[in-house]
Amino acid sequence: MTTTVKAADAAQFLSLIPRMLGYTPTRSLVVVPMRRGRSLGAMRLDLPPREAMVDDGFAATVIGMVCRVEVADGLVVVVYSDAPTGEGLPHRDLVDGLRRTADASGLDLIDALVVAADGWGSQRVGPARVRALSELVAHPLPGGPDAGAGLPEVHGDQSTGAQLPERSAADRRRVGAAHRSLSAALSVLCGLPPESPRADRVDPAALAAACELDDLPQLYERALQWDPDTLSPLQAALLGWCLSRPALRDVALVQWASDAAGGAGAMDAQRRWEDGEEYPADLAAVMWGEGASPDPARLESALALVRQVAALTAAGRRAGPLAVCGWLSWALGRSTHAAHYADAALDGDREHGLADIVRSFVASAHLPDWAFRRGEDDDPSARRTGPTSPAGRGSSRGSRGR
Description:
By secondary structure, this protein is of the alpha+beta class. The chain is 43% helix and 9% strand. It is built from 14 helices and 8 strands. Strands 1, 2, 3, 4, 5 and 6 form a 6-stranded mixed beta sheet that branches. A two-stranded antiparallel sheet has the order 7-8.
């Protein structure tokens, strides 16, 4: 379903930006690519640590991201700053750099809005007039109370929601015991060394859980249907065991970003690679954010599931699930969350490969290709729509991203 909301002026446009994103940005640059006055989503970047550090290299990175949205012909930028206005709006150097680079790239900088600590205004042309922040507080949605029904609710800022769910120490102890039972079962079935001296009797439930590894794609597909809030200790232990092993983890990521057939293909490719064959480029490309766009609902389900697995897993075992949380967040366009999970995984395992890759993605502002392909056709039913551009120049299409 597409929701179109038209804003009559810049104040209304700004009131809708948090509704596009689902949160209120802080110390951020929000970039809204536009096509014929309609937005194609929104991208958020951290502001540079100090205004003096802003150069045309940062502007080139920002405008380069807009250029990857092939149908974009312009952009609106919004700076959210905790700096005071002083004699005028802050971050003029940043806006000027963006204007120069946009002009050089053939893009129209439709407006450059700045929300500072004690005022806001536009730096598009001429001296900026500082306006009161009260104009933006609880600004009603244009078009009536039902105008924003298709837009997400606003919760906190870009970091909100990155913390793992609260689970008790007792819950983690139960999952730890399930890990040991699973290890004992795998020792019996596969000859793997157990984590602790094997008991005389192996838990039949752990044996049954271990047998599920015979069909990994089926396990991963069923797991998407589990209720994350009510995972059994063995379910959490089984997924945690898989996600801590790179070969099995990569199958999960490819499958959750595609479908069960994709997972089966990834599993077969993994076996062939272990026998010395080349790993298929199309499957490897998924990990780098290339190829067909995943179903966001599948990624959301996988992320909710793995967040609970990480929360239920002891700190010493948690790096694998945390890194997967990072990749899934990155694939959904939530780079702030991705960095949080990657850093947490590296705190537990400084050599963790996937966590290091995710952190490098975020540090270089690398987003998956599918993040730039929303709105490439003219079918409005294919896109979610949020606020309109200032001065009634169109409607903006919202994609949630952190």
